[in-house]
Amino acid sequence: MSGAAQTVLVVEDEASIASFVAAYLKNAGYQVRTTASGNDALKLVESEKPALVVLDLMLPDIDGVEVCKRIRQRGEMPVLMLTARDEDVDKIIGLEVGADDYMTKPFNPRELVARVRAILRRAAPGRADRESAVIQHGDLSVDAGRREAKVGDTEIQLAPKEFDLLWELLDHRGLVLTRDQLLERVWGYTFAGDTRTVDVHVRQLRRKLGDASPIVTVWGVGYKVGPAREPAA
Ligand code: CA
């Protein structure tokens, strides 16, 4: 990370969760502010202008959904929502509430840090740019705004979930994503679903992308994106 540390605001009324999340984020180089209250969170968003808000859904005063909506009305600050297992995640990350990402409790704090990093990388320098982000990886280029994938100059027709899966893997280059994580993030499942869906889509992506496919199987774990090959001469 270059320059001054970015500030992450952690809004969580369970003190034990707030303190371990704060500890992991500090350890990763972020400045951290914590609060247990939705009202305080909205004040801190104004005064501290954090780079990102980690926001628990169930708070004692204003709930996380309302806090997230109000943050959204004010600007483009990214929000990572913490939820319980049975909550309606499609709604939380949908347009109505507008969180950038979510994690279901209990979660791995290392994964939370990885997602905070990924969101901040995507968010910089603004949501508009994020929507038109292009990831180039060897011969492969993927344009999030146009939802286009190309190998060299050739456009590859991908089904929506194939596109989302490819983007998710490319956006987490260097990280292994488990089948369950991919199910949650691409399909929105909040439970351990039928992970064969993921395998089937990976197979389709490999077939369509051929030699340009960057997807590596990590046996027994999941998938990741391998190093970019040299573009064809
Ligand atoms: Ca709570």
Gap between N and C termini, in Å?
34 Å
Counting DSSP E segments of at least 2 residues, the number of strands comes to: 12
Q: In what order do the strands lie side by side in the largest sheet?
A: 2-1-3-4-5
Percent helix range: 40-55%
Q: Ligands bound here?
A: calcium ion
Superfamily (CATH H level) name of the largest domain: Response regulator
Instruction: Please state the CA-atom Rg, rounded to the nearest Å.
Output: 18 Å
Total number of domains: 2
Biggest beta-sheet profile = 5 strands, parallel
CATH architecture of the largest domain: 3-Layer(aba) Sandwich
Which residue ranges are poorly predicted, with pLDDT under 50 across at least 5 consecutive positions?
A: 126-130
Shape: elongated
Mean pLDDT metric: 85
Judged by helices, strands and strand pairing, the structural class is alpha/beta
Order of helices and strands: EHEHEHEHEHHEEEEHEHHEE
Tally of helical segments:
9
Strand percentage, roughly?
15-25%
In the CATH scheme, the class of the largest domain would be: Alpha Beta
CATH fold descriptor of the largest domain:
Rossmann fold
Concise summary:
With 233 residues, this protein is α/β, with parallel strands linked by helices. It has 9 helices and 12 strands.
Give the topology, please.
Elements: E1 7-11, H1 15-27, E2 31-35, H2 38-48, E3 52-56, H3 64-74, E4 79-83, H4 89-93, E5 101-104, H5 109-123, H6 127-131, E6 134-137, E7 140-143, E8 148-151, E9 154-156, H7 160-171, E10 177-178, H8 179-187, H9 196-209, E11 215-218, E12 222-225
Parallel strand pairs: 1-2, 1-3, 3-4, 4-5
Antiparallel strand pairs: 6-7, 7-8, 8-9, 10-12, 11-12
Helix pairs in contact: 1-5, 2-3, 7-8, 7-9
The chain binds calcium ion.
Calcium ion is lined by residues 13-14, 56, 58-59.
